[in-house]
Structure formats: C-alpha cells, structure tokens
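Shall we go through a protein fold together, starting from nothing but its sequence? Label the sequence line and the structure token line clearly, so we can match residues to local backbone shapes. Would you write everything just below, so we can both look at the same thing?
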Amino acid sequence: MRDDVESAWQKRLPRNAFIGDVLIIVLTLTAAQVVRFSDEDAQLAADDLRIDYWLVGVLIGVLWVLALNIWRAWDIRVIGSGTLEYQRIFAATLAVFGGVAIVSYALRIELARGYVALAAPLGLLALLLWRWISRKLIIRRRSRGELSRRLLIIGGPAEVLQLHRSFERTPGSGYLPIGAVLPGYSLHSPDGQELPLPVVSVERTADAIMDSILENRAEVVAITGHGLKPRTMRALSWELASREISLVLAPALTDIAGPRIHSHPVADLPLIHVSTPKIEGFQAALKRTFDLFCAAVGLVVISPLLLATAIAIKLDDGGPVFYAQQRIGRGNAPFTMYKFRSMAVDADAKVAELSALHGQDAGNGVLFKMKDDPRITRVGAFIRRYSIDELPQLFNVLLGTMSMVGPRPPLEREVLQYDPYAMRRLKVTPGITGLWQVGGRSDLDWEESIRLDLYYVENWSFVQDIIILIRTVKVVLAKEGAY
C-alpha cells in the first residue's frame, strides 16, 4: 500500500459508505419485522423446520451486504459518481430479493410477502437517498479541490487540453489534474499551444515517465493520444499496477456516453466498439408515445394556469396572448412554434437595433439573448422567470413538430450561421427542454450550448429523457439562467 501517496480520505470515504449502507439495511429489516409482525412470534416454516424471522432478517442482511460488495458499491471510483453508483445499488438489491423470491418458490418456503414487499423498496429508496445526499456533500467538497485523486495526463497538447477541459467542467468527478507529460514535444512551447497544466516531462521512455509520475505523487494516470510505442505502454502499465497507481485510457472521441461503448476482443486486441443510437422503429414509437402522453396530461393539468396567464397578458398591454415564431426543426424543416407573448408587440423589429447597440453583450455569438431586455413586459418578466411562456409548446408536441426533450429549436438566422458540426443538431426533433435547458440555459456560451445539444443527439436514450425532465423541474424552480 502506497501510504506516501494515498490520502486518508480514500480510506475514509469507502468506510463511511459501508457503515451507512449497513446501518440502513439493519434499520430497514428491523422496521419490516416490526411493522409486518408487530407483537407476533413470527416464524418461517420450511418443511419441519421453523426459523424465527429475526434470523431470516439477519440472513437477508448478510446477503444484501455481500451483494453490495460483489457489485463493488464501495469502490472509491464509484462513490460519488452518480448514475453508476445508483445502478450498482439497484442491481445488488434486485439480485438479493430476486434470489430470495426464487429460492423460496423453488423450495416451497412460505416467506411472508408483506415482509419482502416492505423491506425491498424501503431499503432501496433509503440506500439511494443516503448515497444521493452523500454525493451532494462530496461534490461540494470536490468543487473546492478536496476529496480528489491527483491526475497526471499523458498525450499530445490538443488531447491534454481537451481532457483537462472535460475535468474542469465536472469538478465533482473526483480527479484533480496536476500536470501533463507530452512525449516527444517541446517542454517550453508544446505545439505552439499554452496549456493550463504544467508540463512535467516530454520523455518517451517508460522509466522517465514513471519518474515524473512518482515525483508529482500522481494517483491516477490518464493516457490520451499518447504516441507511445506498444512496448513502452506495456512496461508503463505493469509498473503502474505494481505501485497501485490507477491507469485510465481516455479515447480521443469525446462526449460519448458509457452505454455506447463496448469492448470486444478481436485478434487478441481489446477493440472498443462505439454504437450509434438511432431514434427509429420501436425507440421512435416509444418516444412519440411518451411525448403524446406527457403533452396531453400536461395540458389538462395546467389548463387553469394557461387561462390565468392568458388573462394576465391581455390585461397587461392589450396585445395578443400568443406569439408564433418560425423555427427550424428536424431535417432542417421550418415549423411554427407557439409561446405566450412575453415581449412588446414590436419586439422582432427591434432585434437589429439592440444587437447593433449592445454588440457581443447581446447573446453568445449566434443566439441573441439579453439579461435586461427592454422589450420584455411586466407579465413577461414573470412568466419567463418560471418558463411559463414556453408551456404552449405542448401544442407543438401534440402536432409532432416538437418533442418533450431534445435540442433547442433554432431560428433560421441561427441555422444560416451553423457549420457542419452544429448542423447535426437538426438530426432529431427539437424539444421543449433538453441538456441545454438543464445545463445553464441562457448563461451558456455558444460552443457549450452546441456541445450539450450534440451530446444529446449522439447519446439519446429514453432513460436520459426522463432524467432531463426531472432536472428541468429543479432548474425552473431555481430560476437558473432564465431571462
């Protein structure tokens, strides 16, 4: 064990997670026992054998803990990671109670259904809630540079810069970049590009690179676009493994979600295959059905709010209630998008004037957007703050021109400025909300807005749509980036 490098928190974090999980399991099974059997002398009957339910609870608890260990729920790389952490807890819990149900059925053991029906969901929710709270605390500390593993990046300047920016965007990932190794480059001016990280070495040999890793007390080494010989890579990986330093291979292909990546051995090589998600067939039908259901139910539920908003807009300045605007949808096809009017009637006529007056302060380069837009009405300021002005877009969802979740629907003048890279946003139906909406909204710069929309296009999944909708509620209530 490398006591000189490994921080105390790397031992404390898994230990705290373990203690918390075990405590929750004990309390859950105790609660299920007390609620289900009350003062009864409950026993499990298996042929001629009778077992007290307290002992059954102990057995299930042990199996539950073992399952969490098998699924590596206390791995330092998993704790605080979010989705992966929750998936492992869910899988371990499902395996335990699924296995208990199968065994009891196969052996004809009369296991009380109420006991299992209470313990399983209660325990799962409690574990997920505990890990969620713990993750929030961990991310808060990691954003201050704490609870993070020291990361050294090996690769070319462009790859190092790209990887560093990715970690910069997500300080809660648990990695703290401390330096870069640029094999074969100039130490003083790597490829004419200034890096935000100190270049600690430009050597290509495994021994020299290893010396730099040890001198900088790196706990994780990320290799991307390295240009190293296979023999050097192999020697370096062996040396890192012997010293218990984690090795991460970061592909140059970025913004690819985990479910799209599959390892497949071919000719003794661990080839990585990247699948491309397509919204067609069953997936397209599922997304459309979900859209229709959400839009129909949503319009019924919020109909009083829609009516109150319409009356308020009409009373404010006497102008039209709705605002119809041409937007560009899937396949570069134009459509009419509906919103509650939040600006003065002549707002569109003033765009050129305001853009010329305020220059780069009015938007993010392509998208025109102002924080203190003089065209916004009194009622408009309120409904924009809570995104009420966007609710009529549910009618667009019913018509099929928009989806509940997708890229932001652009204006034609914006599309005219798109490069081929940005045009990929138009491969899917635009949405009322999306990663752009939950990732910062109007506070984002143009490059980041495009990146988030393209990430959605390249990594679409139905589960991701659900998560984005849930996150949207939080963002709207917090009024983040709304103007």
The two ends are 53 Å apart (CA to CA). Confidence is low (pLDDT under 50) at residues 1-5. DSSP finds 17 helices and 13 strands in the chain.
